[in-house]
TrEMBL record:
Keywords: Glutamine amidotransferase, Lyase, Stress response, Transferase. One of its GO terms (cellular component) is cytoplasm. Signal peptide: none annotated. Pfam families: DJ-1_PfpI (PF01965). This is Type 1 glutamine amidotransferase domain-containing protein. It comes from the Bacteria. GO terms for biological process: methylglyoxal catabolic process to D-lactate via S-lactoyl-glutathione. Belongs to the peptidase C56 family. HSP31-like subfamily. GO terms for molecular function: glyoxalase III activity; transferase activity. It comes from Saccharothrix syringae. The keyword Kinase does not apply. Residues 25-217 form the DJ-1/PfpI domain.
Length: 220
């Protein structure tokens, strides 16, 4: 049985480019499918957050179907694993769903960075979706090298940010490029998934199911 760790942002707000604070959290569809798809395929899935804090769903992402599934895993969301206490050896894959939350906490989380470097060096599956790739920014080794430099990936694009109308504090796409990642993006709001060996990335919420299915293929 494959073992999957879903790392969810615990941030409930994002400081925007103008200094104002925007209520945020995780994107419902992305967490739902990151958990549901592998579980339905027989994988064991655990949820972790920074500090073991209860994550908050972004109100803009809620919907009847997603709310129902989140309610079914409400006990797990109420008491997630503490990210810093996770042993990488216990898992075959780590998945970072989005929402703007990861830009606020996962991007600079040292525990996540250590975990991701361990996974990258061991050739284990690493997946990130939408703004989840902001979490990949934490994967910098002690020598300053980026664990995913030279790797092909996608992320929520600058064009999608522009169309979404939120003045985010930085461009996830640009920062990944600066660290040496090779960004491949599809049309705005298209289901776009990029697979580079054991690195799986999805561009936006529309890519949620396809990203989760690509994780299963990479595990197989």
């Amino acid at each position: 049985m494959s073992r999957v760790l879903v790392v969810v942002s615990a941030a409930d707000e994002l400081v925007l480019a103008d200094g104002s604070r925007h209520a945020t959290g995780f994107w419902a569809e992305e967490v739902v499918e990151s958990v549901r798809v592998p579980r339905e395929a027989g994988a064991r899935v655990d949820i972790a957050t920074p500090g073991g804090a209860r994550p908050v769903v972004d109100a803009a992402s809620r919907g009847e179907e997603f709310d129902a599934y989140l309610e079914s895993i409400s006990d797990e969301l109420a008491s997630p694993l503490v990210l810093a206490e996770v042993d990488p050896a216990d898992y075959d894959a780590v998945v970072l769903p989005g929402g703007h939350g990861p830009m606020a906490d996962l991007a600079g989380d040292p525990a996540l960075g250590k975990l991701l470097v361990s996974f990258a060096d061991a050739g284990k599956v690493v997946a990130a979706l939408c703004h989840g790739p902001a979490g990949l920014l934490s994967a910098v080794r002690e020598d300053g090298s980026f664990a995913f430099a030279g790797r092909r990936m996608t992320a929520f694009t600058d064009e999608e940010e522009r169309q979404g109308g939120l003045a985010v504090p930085y461009s996830v796409e640009a920062r990944l490029r600066e660290l040496g990642a090779v960004l491949e993006t599809g049309p705005a709001w298209s289901s776009t998934v990029v697979v580079d060996g054991t690195l799986v990335t999805g561009q936006n919420p529309q890519s949620s199911v396809d990203t989760a299915q690509a994780v299963l293929k990479a595990l197989a």
